[in-house]
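Appendix B. One record, verbatim.
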Amino acid sequence: MLNKNVIQDELNQLSQRMQNQELLFDLADDDDLIDAIIYEQKSLYSRYTYLIKKAKAESLHMDYVERKSLEKCGS
């Protein structure tokens, strides 16, 4: 069972990592690197989604997490 602080910390870390991946994507010019970045973004988004579901299932109220990068990845 994950507690609120663990979930919140991981959500914050995931958000930052996704923003970093977005910056790398903007700079990438190699098809293989672009593919790797896309797979990493999807992986991070999946983990983020899992944590949100876990928090909801445990009725945890989470603090604000930057979602700009997450919205792009989820679409």
